[in-house]
Amino acid sequence: MDFSVIGKNYHRQDGLPKAKGTAKYVADLKFDNMLYGKILRSPHAHAKVLSIDITRAKELPGVIGIVTPEDCPETKFNMAGFPPGEDFPLPQDQLILTDHPLYVGDPICAVAAVSERVAEEALQLIDIEYEVLPHVIDRHEAIKDDAVQIKEDGNVISRFPLAWGDVDQAFAEADVIVENRYTTQKAYQCSIEPSSGVVAMWNDMKRLVVYSPTQMPHLVRRILAQALDVRPGDIEVIKPHVGGGFGSRLGVVACEPIAALLSKQTGKPVKIIYTREESLENTEQRHPITYEIKTAAKADGTLIGHDMKAIVDTGAYATHGPSIGILAGLWGLTMFKTPHVRYEGITTSTNTMYNGAYRGYGNPQSVWAVEQQMDLIAEKLNIDPIDLRRKNMLQEGDVWPWSGYPIESCGLPECLDKGEEIIGWKEKRANKQNDGVKKRGLGVATMMHVSGAKPILHELSSAFVKFNEDGTANLLIGSAEIGQGCNTALMQICAEELGINYEDVIVPENVNTDYTMFDIGSHASRQVYSTGHAVKKASAEAKEKLLQVASAMLGVHPNELDAKEGKIFVKKDPEKFVTHADANLEAHFRHDGKQIWGACSENPPGNPPVYAAHFAEVEVDVETGEIKVVNFVAAHDTGVMINPNLVYGQIQGAIQHGLGYSLTEEVQICQETGRVLNPDLVNYKVFTMEDMPDFDIVVVEAAAKSSSHGQKSVGESGLVPTAAAISNAVYDAIGVRITDLPITPEKVLKALGKLTPTV
Amino acid sequence: MDFSVIGKNYHRQDGLPKAKGTAKYVADLKFDNMLYGKILRSPHAHAKVLSIDITRAKELPGVIGIVTPEDCPETKFNMAGFPPGEDFPLPQDQLILTDHPLYVGDPICAVAAVSERVAEEALQLIDIEYEVLPHVIDRHEAIKDDAVQIKEDGNVISRFPLAWGDVDQAFAEADVIVENRYTTQKAYQCSIEPSSGVVAMWNDMKRLVVYSPTQMPHLVRRILAQALDVRPGDIEVIKPHVGGGFGSRLGVVACEPIAALLSKQTGKPVKIIYTREESLENTEQRHPITYEIKTAAKADGTLIGHDMKAIVDTGAYATHGPSIGILAGLWGLTMFKTPHVRYEGITTSTNTMYNGAYRGYGNPQSVWAVEQQMDLIAEKLNIDPIDLRRKNMLQEGDVWPWSGYPIESCGLPECLDKGEEIIGWKEKRANKQNDGVKKRGLGVATMMHVSGAKPILHELSSAFVKFNEDGTANLLIGSAEIGQGCNTALMQICAEELGINYEDVIVPENVNTDYTMFDIGSHASRQVYSTGHAVKKASAEAKEKLLQVASAMLGVHPNELDAKEGKIFVKKDPEKFVTHADANLEAHFRHDGKQIWGACSENPPGNPPVYAAHFAEVEVDVETGEIKVVNFVAAHDTGVMINPNLVYGQIQGAIQHGLGYSLTEEVQICQETGRVLNPDLVNYKVFTMEDMPDFDIVVVEAAAKSSSHGQKSVGESGLVPTAAAISNAVYDAIGVRITDLPITPEKVLKALGKLTPTV
């Protein structure tokens, strides 16, 4: 396609202030008379608060406010959102502060003081009497009938059954059946900016202003309103610069409503900034899931059935638990043509910090299970693993059972071809390196992912575009730039459609819910497809009006005009033109006086799937168990790249995220105490730049038909198949399969029978 | 009319923060690394700068930046706006900093330092060599052929001729001719917040952010762009709370571009706040005008002709001078039916601070002349002055020659009737109090004024309304709340049209040009009529969409529905309803997912005139010359009052303004030096609460047909006829007419022949 702005590597809109350090994050914000809040959290995994005595704390000089469970509205809410009234309501089971803590860290009180130090000190002076109750940390224990019951209505908060075809018949007809159990860990998103912080202040207009580094300003407003028992319109949410999200900023984090309560009580702005430790211990992370899965195939490799059960650990509160219970099945079970499927997704509470969204939202776990099943089948049938995927994958024109939307385009075949070539699949599989100690292997895994949250959510996106008198345009969007570069991509879409230059589109640094229309925000890899759709439509409306003005100026019919790079020209005679500046000056001041604008608020038309195939070459040291990723190829169908550098950047970062998830990262919780054992970046082993292998990225631009310019998505997909590819490669190297994430040297040695039980 | 929100005295939107002191004015703003700017001004009324040496100033610790004329773009501009490309371009004759100062105070350099004190000190260390040039301060001197020539193309910057009918014929046919000369003074708007201040900062998005307490954010952006030679889209203007404007904040005040230059040079935010003295000496004030006017009438009082010349003193630069030259004639000459008119408006430069807009924009001066002529005629013909006005006034259905727009409604007859009654006109005129020393008299004067700037300006107004999911609505407007309460009135219009409650409309405290559509701002008494029109249309669009949603919910045709007070109900069966909250939740999350919004950017349809008659009873002490206003009645036709308290408040304040203009206020300039002699509130005698007489306000609500809810205007009209009414009353009391403003005791005594020449 002939684009003038799309497809080019413009510098990101927020690059310079971020590089220079002038971009303001929530921690940088200061306001007159601002207080600092700290949260007193439960030291017990399960307890009843018998009494709270704040006398001593109140007397500490510099303490201005203290809130306890008595200061909270009685309305329960869900941090993840989707309050009653929406299509997919989630259970509402949380209070802002609790006298019945369900995990180590459950907020009980909070203090606002003149400094963080004073607030910290005051926490020590709050005297709380607890009745410690029995707890359950392990999800497998929690679902047992005789388990400690965490909540009145039982530990299991949802059971999602799914079935199509006749799975029993599939197994009866199968030539090969493979069955296994796969488990995944709790993992931390680890954005550079710790994942929670807020400044909240009630003003004298009777409104609450909240600076929140959120992925969804408009939904935070909505959830916060429910938590505080006010109207969404009473709240103004402002999203400043954000240092990465990856799902950790979906919905409300506990500090927003707590800061709002403290501000209400003190009449002053209250800032709460989580430390890295608080972020690691007390924010929503990836759900640990256990899969029991049995898969049936015919002798030619045709997949005919899956029977799967998942046990999802939601932690102490519901939040995203029920939707993960659904999706942790759907993702994997719908990525290949499979005529017979049975699934049950069981979501259980445990006395741990509640889990939430993390890049992929159940898909990495799901693919971890299903893509290892595929390799088991390939091995049994002696089919090349890549060929097995080729045989079973959904094709363009099929309907994706996950979303019910058509597969508008499918770049997976090309991803498989190119990845196979680049990694040297055939020759390396044929000539394995194996020096006895260091053994090499190759693995592949594929995935499908969404470009939006439809049909689970009504995916409202909006945009408002206004032309200034100089031909520049302000683009107002309620979507959330969280570091991924979506503003830059949306500015390119706007510029392309308006026919102006990238530099002529202006998007505010912050998102403000008072000024922007409703957009459900940055999640489900949706911004560039869904908000992009709204931006395109709003821009098209503005362009149409502008062409009418130019038509009068040039004396030709609007249909004969087009606009590009700041000029509106006669298509047949491009030397005949007016500039956008001319036409907009005319529109403002001479042409019966109307500023030109366009607006759109609607659901996008579809949800085109994206594809990826990851190829890993690993070298396993059978003496130390160490796994070295020697080569890595990520081949992605992202649809048309609006800004290639940003697309590559997303994939690069996701590989790093995915390799950490595969090999090193796990939030460890003590079964006895419920405490996080490694709440810092020394002991939570995030994958660093130094750990990164050589890698290649292949992008296939299989254009989606329903999107504004062929784009699909890239935000989450990059880490979805990584762990399965690594595990498949490890198996290829050493002949043992690790089914529990992360794949640590200990587990390798244990699987090889080399670890003595005493270690 | 049956309104539920309009016509009620809701508390002003910004009342609480202003009352509590939490409202942020520009002087309250603080930013990281912010510097403080001070301006070095010419000490000479006319000079050439021969050299500037900033060496010593640069060495002063704490001085971060210094700008001189060399640092300015070469583009000339006009502080008042209307750059080339618009319908009514004003001469572009100013630079940000000059090496050819034309008045005492003309900015030459500016310093940015870590504190105001250091900046002040640095100004003393800048060494400037001047060649002092001859100057001219008096406008009558300035227009003489042999006057000092201030500018290359002469002192007279515009001559506006106007004529209709045959004025010579009128004087030939006249039964009575009166002729006189009237002069007016330079007067200061005296807003509570001194009239200039700014914080300007270039950010790393390559954009200039300017906090300006302006009456016209979008036009300031435009003018500033021209001054700085950048695009309007490169600038984000934010208007914080403003403590009164009255015209003093029309366009750019010198400090905005100067702060922008300093910020560009230093890379830091720069704040400049004028002191009261700077505000009195160096901001735009009311034009002094001299009128020579001859008026012809028939024996029955029928006015048949005016022949008038005005000499307008624009000061050192053009700014508003040419448009005042036009309007200072048009206002008075078109308020009565007058078949023959000749006018010449001569605008001349002088070596004084340039003048600008002040409530009424030439109308108080014009009425000062014409309404005294009316009394001269009434006296000569022995007609009651009120009856003379009744006889000659324009009627509903006439076209107002000023604007060319029809007189949609005229409440002047009722104003005259009620005022005459309340002041006790007939009985008091018949039985004059006169104890020999203290003599009483009654006077009347009328006026017409506009509800907008059409047709002089393309009066673009805009509004954007979005419904939130709870039925509240955000209203985004680019108009400027400057203390007059227009936001409150516009919120009432929005609430009325949407059918929600006043409290459910949300308007941001600040105006931001990035987020709001183009609106030419608060001047020409235009916001409630013109922006009100846009608010109504945008709201009507949103309401129409909402009724469609409600229609589906209630199963009735949208035509059968209406909305009021937060409910959308079946007109024939009001118990059948959904709330706005219900319908908007449906719209967002269930009804195919669209947020409901409405937008409008356009010129309003007309410009309905407003009327007033002021009645003054004065008591003049013939020994001291003191004038005491004993009673005062202001009778105003404002159209429908959106918020009566705000309308009364406007009139109350304007009476005070008008009485000060009549009796005490004058910015005095030394003819020898060009310096302001009384640049403080001890010596500039603003009319205070203690000086205020008893007064009555009468409001006649003659609804305009073209306005959204019948409203017209009230912002400026309240002070327009005051001075003429006072002068007419003084004449009635003591038989001498003061024709030079203000009417001081000295002038009274002099007119009475009681002032010995030595005093």
UniProtKB/TrEMBL annotation, chains A, B:
Recorded superkingdom: Bacteria
Oxidoreductase in keyword set: yes
Calcium in keyword set: no
Pfam families: Ald_Xan_dh_C, MoCoBD_1, MoCoBD_2
Gene Ontology terms, MF aspect: iron ion binding; oxidoreductase activity
Keywords for this protein: Molybdenum, Oxidoreductase
InterPro entries linked: Ald_Oxase/Xan_DH_a/b, Ald_Oxase/Xan_DH_a/b_sf, Ald_Oxase/xanthine_DH-like, AldOxase/xan_DH_MoCoBD1, AldOxase/xan_DH_MoCoBD2, AldOxase/xan_DH_Mopterin-bd_sf
Domain Aldehyde oxidase/xanthine dehydrogenase a/b hammerhead, first and last residues per copy: 20-134
SMART domains assigned to the protein according to its UniProt record, in alphabetical order: Ald_Xan_dh_C
PANTHER family membership: ALDEHYDE OXIDASE 1-RELATED, XANTHINE DEHYDROGENASE
Protein name, entry field: Aldehyde oxidase/xanthine dehydrogenase a/b hammerhead domain-containing protein
Natural source organism: Anaerobacillus arseniciselenatis
Lineage, top ranks: Bacteria, Bacillati, Bacillota, Bacilli, Bacillales
